[in-house]
Here is the input.
Amino acid sequence: MLLAAILLLLKWLEFRFLIVNHAFETYIGAIALIFTSLGVWLAIKLAKPKTRTVVVEKEIYITKPTGDFIPQEKALSKTGISKRELEVLALMSEGLSNQEIAGRLFVSLNTIKTHSSNLFEKLDVKRRTQAVEKGKRLGILA
Here is the structure.
C-alpha cells in the first residue's frame, strides 16, 4: 500500500512538474480548445436552417356569376370607395399592371398609384391580391 501511495505521489509530482515547466503552452492549448469548441458551436447554430412551416387556412367565397354584376352600394358607401377607385380595383382583379390600368383609363401612372394607395388604405390591406380578395368578400367586385 505504501508503494502505491509513493507511486501516486510521484505521478502527481511529475504532472505538476510538466505543468509548471510548460505553463505557457498549456494555457495556449486551453485557449485554443475553448475557441475551437466555440467556433464549432457557432457554425452549427448558423448553418442550421431556421425555417418554419406555417399553414394558413382561408375561406374562399365562390359565387356563380348571374350576368351583369352590380356592386353593393352599402359596402361602397361604408368603405368610401369612389367610382374611379372601383374601376381601378376591377382592373386590378383582371390582373392588369398599373401601367396597363393607366392606359385603359387614359390617366397617368401616378394617378393610378394614388388610387391604389387610397384603395389599400380604405380596404385596410397591404397588397393588390388582398384588395381584390377583400373587394370580392365585401361584394363590390364580381
Summary: The first helix runs from residue 2 to 21. The chain has a mean pLDDT of 85. Helices lie at 2-21, 23-47, 73-79, 83-93, 98-105, 109-123, 128-138. The radius of gyration is 36 Å.
